[in-house]
Specification:
heterodimer, A: about 120 residues, mainly beta, 7-stranded mixed sheet, 4-stranded antiparallel sheet, globular, B: about 110 residues, 6-stranded mixed sheet
Chain lengths: ~120, ~110
């Protein structure tokens, strides 16, 4: 059983299009995250949701809109895609927000290429 | 701005040697420190976390933390070719009811040569 899954795995699209990436976790975790990893391998947090509520929203263009229909799902919708959006997007989840030892589990990633 | 710095490498070590990976961080309030391993084209996977000064050992891996120097390291003993990957250091900023907001370093690429 895949703990954190993402679809699609690969996404190639044209500039200006709108696309969505889906994420699901079956670990029963309360908190989910979206990260972006650019070509230089820097992994940066974009959003964090705790029990369907947005907690962290780092400086991300408002073309990016996360949506959490329930605590097991966190989807990412991107409007008007730009070349600079090309990256690998990772979903992650964790169980205990209040604990120092809390670890995050990552999905397999979605490789987005904007042409 | 909170930063996590790592040497990008590549760090090349012969099989069987000890690989030493280093990480410095700027936020003195950081409580927990994580080492993730990422194979090319794959997602990060957790190797170890540490939150107390000193050493923490798990098999061939030892994490070392020195909060006064704002320094965390990962030692890999008896390095194997299968250890070749990028190692990401992550430092948490704890936010109440929001979980750990992890700030990642840029990663160090390790190459273990047979």
């Amino acid at each position: 059983d895949t703990a954190v899954s993402q679809t699609p795995k690969y996404l190639v699209t044209q500039m200006g299009n709108d696309k969505s990436i889906k994420c699901e976790q079956n670990l029963g975790h309360d908190t989910m995250y979206w990260y972006k990893q650019d070509s230089k391998k820097f992994l940066k947090i974009m959003f964090s949701y705790n029990n369907k509520e947005l907690i962290i929203n780092e400086t991300v263009p408002n073309r990016f809109s996360p949506k959490s229909p329930d605590k097991a799902h966190l989807n990412l919708h991107i409007n008007s895609l730009e070349l600079g959006d090309s990256a690998v997007y990772f979903c992650a989840s964790s169980q205990h927000p209040g604990q120092t030892k809390e670890t995050q589990y990552f999905g397999p990633g979605t490789r987005l290429l904007v042409l | 701005q909170k930063e996590v710095e790592q040497n990008s490498g590549p760090l090349s070590v012969p099989e069987g040697a000890i690989a030493s990976l280093n990480c410095t961080y700027s936020d003195r309030g950081s409580q927990s420190f994580f080492w993730y391993r990422q194979y090319s084209g794959k997602s990060p996977e957790l190797i170890m976390f540490i939150y107390s000064n000193g050493d923490k050992e798990d098999g061939r891996f030892t994490a070392q933390l020195n909060k006064a120097s704002q320094y965390v390291s990962l030692l890999i003993r008896d390095s194997q070719p299968s250890d070749s990957a990028t190692y990401l250091c992550a430092v948490n900023q704890f936010m109440l009811n929001a979980g750990n907001m992890l700030t990642f370093g840029g990663g160090t690429r390790l190459m273990v040569k047979p």
